[in-house]
Amino acid sequence: MSENVYIIGAGIHPFGRTDSRSGREQGVYAVREALQDAGLEWPDIECAYGGSAAAGNADIMVNELGLTSLPFTNVANGCATGGSALAASQQAIASGMYDLALAVGFDKHPRGAFNAKPADYGLPEWYGQTGMMLTTQFFALKIQRYMQLHGISRTTLGRVAEKAFRNGTITPHAWRRSPVDLDTIMNAPMINDPLTKYMFCSPAEGAVALILASEKKMKELGADGVKIRAVAVKTRPPNSFEVFQPGISIEEGGKPTVLASQAAFEKAGIGPEDISVAQLQDTESGAEIMHMAENGFCKDGEQEEWLANGWTEIGGKLPVNTDGGCLACGEPIGASGLRQVYENVTQLRGRAGERQVPGKVRFGYSHVYGAPGLSAVAILERTSLRDGWRARSR
Q1: 330-342, pLDDT tens digit by residue?
Q2: Which residue of 18, 51, 199, 377 has the fewest CB atoms within a 10 Å radius of its CB?
Q3: Sites in the chain below the pLDDT cut of 70
Q4: Rounded distance, CA 361 to CA 389, Å?
Q5: What was the pLDDT predicted at 137?
Q6: Sign, CA torsion 326/330/333/338
Q7: Could you tell me if 335 and 206 are in contact, meaning their C-beta atoms sit under 8 angstroms apart?
Q8: What is the dihedral sign for C-alpha 91, 96, 98, 99?
């Protein structure tokens, strides 16, 4: 599969709560936005991949979009549903079978914590009875362990959340649009030690759609394309410590994020030092911290210095979660991974407004992590000389 693949259309339905629209209707909204962005009509799309965890099958959207008989594959892969839909769409075009494909994700979760069932993950009922199916408990235990091993302070957890809410104030599609200061974050009610309520994201609603094209089709259309340099999806290796796992090995194992990141960088032929903007999974503050190291952007423990010096801010040496991430946008499972890619497309096109990373970025990196130990990474590149991009000075 040698065909170059580009994203030529991107659409988003604002995240948060929209009582007037179902999850599927939000998905339709995002698809229409993406079609308009690409200058296309629905009958132009040759195949589609999409998913939702709580709002129904994605292929039902054809009832509103039009009955064109295109192949539409439903995708279900936890928090990596969107990333997996993107990977499938990219592969469909790279194979030479199609010239235009759609990747779409949407969701509409009820209020309250995610309510996963042990049996769905091959776990006995006693695991749920201990409370460990409530993911806040797992994530708290994981970051507790990481903090003790690598010297991460609670203040650093708070700084991640403070940055997220600050970025959310200048992001039209974000749910949380008000800043929250560090003292408020640190002194908020404790949910699971060491994480307060402002350090967790919330289940939400929203939708994202991306239209992918072959290089030939992009040039034929004269479209504003962003190249997909690499996509990688990996599941957990032996002895890893992942969500919905009943124990931890005494042997240090690998990590799915490390494997996905390494595979994506190898495919792209670049390294972490080349990335200009990154969107990392931040279901809670600790996740962003751990994923900074797992994706190769720093060493374990260096996050203290990074956050204290503002290096992950929009004007920093590696802006991370420029739209506020899951903390500010919430996490509609089907859409969340594609939101990260949408944000990078927006940044690479120079259309991010107040949150635009200075210098016109060249490479954008997105990473998603989900149960039960699954990770997807996508690397995008801005290659259009007509826009006069230049690599950011580092």
Answers
A1: 999 999 999 999 9
A2: 18
A3: 1-2, 384-394
A4: 7
A5: 86
A6: negative
A7: yes
A8: positive
> Is the CB of residue 367 less than 8 Å from the CB of residue 257?
yes
- Beta-carbon-side half-sphere exposure of residue 6 (alpha carbons within 13 Å): 23
Query: Cis ω on the peptide bond leading into residue 372 (within 30° of 0)?
Result: yes
Helix and strand counts by DSSP (H, E) for the chain: 13, 11
| Other Cβ atoms within 10 Å of 254 Cβ, number | 13
Label residues 297-331 b or e (16+ Cβ within 10 Å = b).
bbeeebbbebbeeebbbbeeebbbbbbbbbbbbbb
Looking at domain 5-111+202-387, which CATH architecture does it have? 3-Layer(aba) Sandwich (3.40)
Closest CA to 196 of 155, 163, 167: 155
Residue 227: which H helix or E strand, with range? Answer: strand 226-235
Q: How far apart are CA 311 and CA 24, in angstroms?
A: 38
Per-residue pLDDT reduced to its tens digit, 364-381? 999 999 888 889 999 999
Tokens of 46: 């040759």
Candidates 185, 189, 167, 162; CA nearest to 177 is 167
Residue 352: its pLDDT value, please? 97
- Coil, helix or strand at residue 49: strand
